[in-house]
Amino acid sequence: MSTIKLTATGGGGGTVSLKAPAATQSNGAVELTLPTDDGSADQYLKTNGSGVLSFGTVSTQDTLPFRNLAINGAMNISQRGNLTGITSGVYGGPDRIKFDYGGLGTWSISQTADAPDNTGLKNCYHIACTTADTSVDAGNMLAIQHIMENSSLHRMEAGTSDAKTWAIQFWIKSNKTGTYMAELYRLAQGGTARQISQTFTISSADTWEKKTITFAGDTNAGGVMSDDNGAGMQFNIWFAAGTNFTSGTLNTSWNNQTAANRMPGLTNNLADSTSNYLKFTGLQIEEGSTHTSFEHKSYGDELLACQRYFWMYANGGQVSSSSVADGRFLSGAEVDFMVTFPTTMRSTPSIYQVTGDNYFKIMASGYTGYCDGNWTLQYAHRNGTSHYQGPDTSGSTNLPVQVIINNSSARLGYQAEL
Question: Rounded distance, CA 210 to CA 213, Å?
């Protein structure tokens, strides 16, 4: 073992020793080349992996919380569960990702436990073609969307001279290689919709690939975001498009929306075979030109953020024969109950329900009846709502009851999606 000793000058007598290891990985010499300068305050030495040292700076941007504008980017929250037989635009599988359907094929949507290694990611948004369509008509299209709320986007300063750059990253996997398209689409908001697009390539089949995309900020005054809870910006990934969307010139800089200029260069049709699938995870959308490490948020924080847009209150597939709420007979033919939401929803929600014969049981002392689950909301607001329905057997006015899930297919939720 060799030792280098550095001795203090001026009579202090102290030494600092640098010792070589007893053995190296190659059992040979290790050579480190020092930088040519002494660096700056608070910098550190780093290696390029080949023995050349340089000074680096700790990035504070990587540690900043709340930098990811995307909600549920890790695809961990999936309140609605998996869907099959899809032939329309719909939310399903992981929350906050919408399947944008334009007349091509039939699809399943699921949350799948598949993700790139060594990323901390565990789940993905997974679409699979179950009925193929090889003929792409002019108006056909397929995409997935993450739609962001106006009030969450003020930091991007869109529509001003200080408009910020968008740094977007995601992981994607498909059996079908080729050219796909990423797009930022600013909704009209009383003016003209604006958009910008960029192609990307899936190079290797059935392999997770990380994509990093940068879009300039939109400095045009027409791109200003409203200060409200409406839909502000879509991030879209397109995987099929007809000539209505491909026949123009690709908008690689911000421009007023013209359909023909949105997708020129998109050559794939993911609907052309029932072998085709696409998986997507690790979505991060942030301010600036640097793609920082993925911001892992707690499950609880992500769930609460998702519940602003959708809350699954009763899910028979997870817990059947469980109590939903305490209620009462408002009259002999009507059962009512109230629910308070776990967070303030984006807007007054509409009901989401899966119904069927006897999907809910109504129980009380000396009484048992059933409802099909076709509840009607009344007095709904952003923080709660009342419900009513007539059970199959009448009861006594003001009789206290319990409402209970009675079928594993029963669902009751509330939606305020963008």
Answer: 10
